[in-house]
Design goal:
The protein contains four helices and five strands. By secondary structure, it is of the alpha+beta class. The chain has one domain (2-83). A hairpin with a 3-residue loop joins strand 2 and strand 3 (60-65). The longest helix has 14 residues, at 2-15. The model has no long low-confidence stretch (mean pLDDT 84).
């Protein structure tokens, strides 16, 4: 799913001014339940059934979930970190 979104919509999102954290970001503690800091990719995993990106606009993404169209609104990077950093194994004592 992630690869498909980036492949099909990444260039459009970049051209429209989306920040990478709006797609790949999450709260520094990904288990804290801060949905307001989840980027599009993490939000897509929250749907029980699959969600499909059908359009990327300057201020929102249109998602198809079954027969419904939902609008994911990005608010710019606000304290997020990249998913791969948040879920990376923590080392040390």
């Amino acid at each position: 799913m992630t690869e498909e979104v980036v492949k099909n919509w990444g260039e459009t999102a970049q051209a429209l001014g989306w920040h990478p954290l709006e797609f790949f970001g999450c709260n520094p503690d990904p288990y804290a339940g801060r949905l307001d800091r989840d980027g599009l990719i993490k939000s897509l995993f929250g749907f029980k059934d699959s969600a499909e990106v059908v359009a990327v606009h300057a201020d929102h993404v249109a998602l198809r979930t079954g027969r419904d169209i939902l609008h994911y609104r990005a608010f710019g990077p606000r304290g997020q970190v990249y998913l791969w950093d948040a879920y990376a194994p923590k080392g040390g004592p």
